[in-house]
Amino acid sequence: MKLLSIASEIYPLIKTGGLADVVGALPGALTGEGVETRTLVPGYPAVIAHLGKAKILKRYDALFGVRATLLSAKVDGLDLFVLNAADFFARPGGPYGDATGNDWTDNWRRFAALSRVGADIAEGAVKGWRPDVVHVHDWQAAMTAAYMRFGPAHSVPKVVTIHNLAFQGRFDAEIFGELGLPPEAWGVDGVEYYGGTGYLKAGLVSADAITTVSPTYAEEIRSPVHGMGLDGLINGRVDRLHGILNGVDTDIWNPAADPSIPRTYSGRALSGRIANRIALEKCFGLDHDDAPLFIIVSRLTWQKGMDLMIDAMDHLVALGGKLALLGSGDHPLEGAFPGAADRHRGRVGVQIGYDEGLSHLMQAGGDAILIPSRFEPCGLTQLYGLRYGCLPVVARVGGLADTVIDANEAAVNAGAATGIVFAPSDPLALHGAIGRAVRLHGDKSAWQAMQRAAMRADVSWSQSAARYAALYRDLLAQVR
Ligand code: ADP
Questions:
Q1: Could you tell me the distance, in angstroms and rounded to a whole number, from the CA of residue 20 to the centre of ligand 1?
Q2: Which of 212, 346, 407, 422 is most buried per CB count within 10 Å?
Q3: Distance from C-alpha of 137 to C-alpha of 8, rounded to nearest angstrom
């Protein structure tokens, strides 16, 4: 089976969050299911720099007004289609905005172009390679499903995956005329969304299947609280909705063979973690002692509950804990954390920024990873925490609820507990969870038993890749 995957990020070439990890890891996992994946991504500078020898498959003289080429290349085992459109993608800053965090004003055009080219490939634009199924990720690629639905490739099965419903790609109504869609595409059953144009919405109404990245989030987005304006639509299409948990790339995230950490280790030899802990403490200017060492690796946003952490830090230190935080995001939060670190020299260390290698060291040296999210479609950092024996302390939402087993008495006695789960995501419950973690950490053998149980948990892609492959096969069977 040939699968065309389309996304705006792919690890290891371009990443701002979990989307990239998923898009980078799923093709390898699907190979074992008999699915051959090729992934279409924008030609950002970081992507073009890695291409090496690329083949030109198609030229566009005026793709939404700019010159572009469609390239094919193989990078790090990934079969890529790259949309090389310098006017759209060769820019400094991030994939969606400039260095100060302002969105590019022509994002509607940039990602309509990506989606249009995705639909072209579905229609046979690449000689000798036509996909059986098209799988698009998030709003940046979602319009592919609309272009396909209103074009010659309408019968090719289309899957749209929601990685985060908070990001919807909403634009003015006026752009509709430039999207190159037929007039009937405008309307409640098309791209129109509360009087404007909605890219994710257009994808969701056009898709043959909608997936999201955990079973609990699939339920949550049916409610007004988490549905973010799309719950009505999602409830109307619930027969097409599937919650499939993300996995992790167990080669890249493997404590027994991780090149970014000073000392590799396994669940049988947890003492190897000490060298990593010492390196981590040094890196963050923390005291070296036996106190429970909490870590945070996160976007600094309201979604991630990072505002709650500012006050919780004092509480964590008062209980005898230490904290290493690595993150970037909202400017007020970026500004608030260093002050807290100054108040608690040796107990709290903060690094504002994005550092993939350091994030590995933190999972390998920390005792527990704090994730107080208000909502969390799946979350990957708790899965890395499980794999590295850095026990997740998580809010009971979305994928966090699906992947961490709370250390209640029954679970601890059964040897099943893998972390601490609290609800709701508010200061009181968060303080309580930190207190429970500190107390549990005091019992070394119970803590280590939890670490081993966590490291045994299957966080690989194998089950989820099988579920995606089964979904693709079902959709294909319906059209053949
Ligand atoms: P989201 O995609 O919502 O940000 P996820 O938990 O799904 O959250 O994925 C986040 C990914 O980004 C993980 O791979 C995590 O390790 C990584 N990450 C987040 N912040 C940083 C950072 N400041 N430095 C390095 N990696 C980070």
A1: 10
A2: 212
A3: 8
